[in-house]
Design a protein that fits this description.
Layout: H1 7-28, H2 32-55, H3 61-86, H4 93-116, E1 125-127, H5 131-145, H6 156-172, E2 176-178, H7 185-190, H8 192-207, H9 213-238
Antiparallel strand pairs: 1-2
Helix pairs in contact: 1-2, 1-3, 2-3, 2-5, 3-4, 3-5, 4-6, 5-6, 5-9
């Protein structure tokens, strides 16, 4: 077996998969908080594999495909299983169907990203909400919001189903969602407002020990939808679209 420098980022990618698998095991054992930590850990490895690939100059199509396969488990299957095991199991087969929607949408979004990938360089936006963002939304809801008692018991299942549907539609839509800038001086100079908002969101999440993460992700989703509507109107008026996403552009950002 020939060992190349690409083994470094690929090990981080596989650590993402191992974390996702560990989260599923924790969910099956009823340890939801531990599962949430494993999914967050998977997100950290997902960031590090791309960083290491750029540092070692070993970005490749194999790395992209491997990353997507691991993301499908950690950010698709694991969050869906978490919401089924904690809330939607009472619906039986219908609960399985509803809970699986986010996993199905996430995997579709990953496949679309791969076939439309236009390059390995960073861009300003993603087309459709990235699956890790969808996972953070669902996991933070399942761990902090649903058990808190904020939602009346008779509305818990309908609201959970609605959140899953919204997240699923956001992922498979072609609405632009911000690609959060790296923590560098160059990123700050390029997009100071987005950089500061991202830093503020991170600080709020850490300060609240994750309890406010769902609200942060909700704002992220609605900001993307509102901006997508504005851009759609602007594109129709100007007749052109800026090449600022990792995927090929789409003229109809709200089409599925």
């Amino acid at each position: 077996m020939r060992i190349t420098r690409s083994i470094i980022p690929n090990l981080f990618t596989l650590a993402n998969l191992f974390s996702g698998f560990s989260a599923i095991v924790a969910i099956s054992e009823g340890d939801i908080s531990k599962a949430g930590l494993f999914i967050v850990l998977a997100g950290l490895f997902d960031i590090l594999d791309g960083t290491m690939a750029r540092l070692t100059k070993s970005t490749s199509e194999l790395g992209v495909e491997l990353d997507s396969l691991c993301d499908a488990v950690s950010f698709g299957v694991a969050p869906s299983f978490l919401l089924y095991k904690t809330i939607l199991f009472t619906l039986g087969p219908m609960g399985i169907l509803i809970a699986s929607l986010s996993a199905l949408a996430g995997v579709y979004r990953l496949a679309r990203f791969n076939v439309q990938l236009a390059g390995f360089e960073d861009k300003l936006y993603f087309t459709g909400m990235p699956i890790p963002s969808g996972a953070l939304t669902l996991v933070s809801y399942g761990i902090f919001i649903a058990p808190s008692g904020i939602i009346p018991p008779n509305l818990l299942i309908p609201i959970t189903s609605m959140i899953i549907i919204i997240v699923s539609l956001a992922m498979i839509s072609t609405v632009k969602f911000d690609n959060l800038p790296r923590p560098t001086i160059g990123s700050f100079k390029a997009r100071p407002v987005i950089f500061i908002l991202g830093l503020l969101a991170f600080a709020i999440t850490v300060y609240s020990k994750g309890e406010y993460l769902f609200y942060v992700m909700t704002l992220y989703i609605f900001w993307g939808l509102i901006r997508g509507l504005i851009l759609m109107i602007g594109n129709k008026v100007n007749g052109e679209q800026e090449r600022d996403t990792l995927e090929d552009p789409d003229e109809h950002p709200f089409d599925i």
